[in-house]
Write a structure and sequence with these properties.
The chain is of the alpha/beta class. It has one domain (2-26, 42-166): YbaK protein (Alpha-Beta Complex). The chain contains six helices and eight strands. The chain has helices at residues 6-15, 31-34, 72-79, 91-98, 124-128, 149-158, and strands spanning 20-24, 44-53, 59-65, 86-88, 118-123, 134-136, 143-147, 164-166. Strands 1, 2, 3, 4, 5, 6, 7 and 8 form an eight-stranded mixed sheet that branches. The longest helix has 10 residues, at 6-15. The termini are far apart. It holds the Pfam family tRNA_edit. Belongs to the PRORSD1 family. Residues 25-155 form the YbaK/aminoacyl-tRNA synthetase-associated domain. One of its GO terms (molecular function) is aminoacyl-tRNA deacylase activity.
Length: 169
């Protein structure tokens, strides 16, 4: 599984002098399962969706604030892939591209998308909402890692992933 890649992620973040804070918890597969473990964190907790368009030409990772509604039809229109064309990608594709399985999708896994074939859609609020930290799984769903928004942007730049900023109401 992907947990063994967590040290590699942590080394990469350290090499960029990016400070993180981590909350260890039992494995969780939904935001609802995760939230009780994160009651003491300050900042924005994310939910992450790994999607493909119907023609399977594009892969998208959507990182939004956990309390946002993500309407796939609306998002497809905004991204120009046509309404009804976004759907969840299968776990095998996620393992191949991001090295994580179900319940572990995370923007931090873009480190392992070496050919930059996954496009990141980022909730604008995560980077412009004044949050001290934004929280993602660090390659495993048994922990949640906080990273400063400006460090997240630097991480994404270093991995070659320019996020598409979207608003989710």
């Amino acid at each position: 599984m992907s947990a063994e890649l967590r040290p590699e992620l942590e080394r990469f973040l350290e090499s960029l002098n990016i400070q993180t804070s981590c909350v260890e918890h039992p494995p969780v597969f939904t935001v609802e399962e995760m939230m009780p473990h994160l009651q003491d964190v300050t900042g924005a907790v994310t939910k992450n969706l790994f999607l493909k368009d119907k023609k399977k030409k594009s892969l998208w990772l959507v990182s939004a604030r956990h309390d946002r509604q993500v309407n796939l039809n609306d998002l497809a229109k905004k991204l120009g892939v046509g309404s009804g064309n976004l759907r969840f990608a299968d776990e095998a594709t996620m393992m191949e591209k991001l090295k994580v399985g179900q319940g572990c999708a995370t923007a931090l896994a873009l480190l392992f998308d070496k050919d930059c074939s996954v496009k990141l859609v980022l909730d604008q609020d995560l980077v412009e909402g004044g949050h001290p930290m934004v929280y993602f799984h660090p390659m495993t769903n048994s922990a949640t890692m906080g990273i400063r928004p400006e460090d997240l942007q630097r991480f994404l730049k270093e991995t070659g992933h320019e996020p598409v900023l979207q608003t989710f109401e």
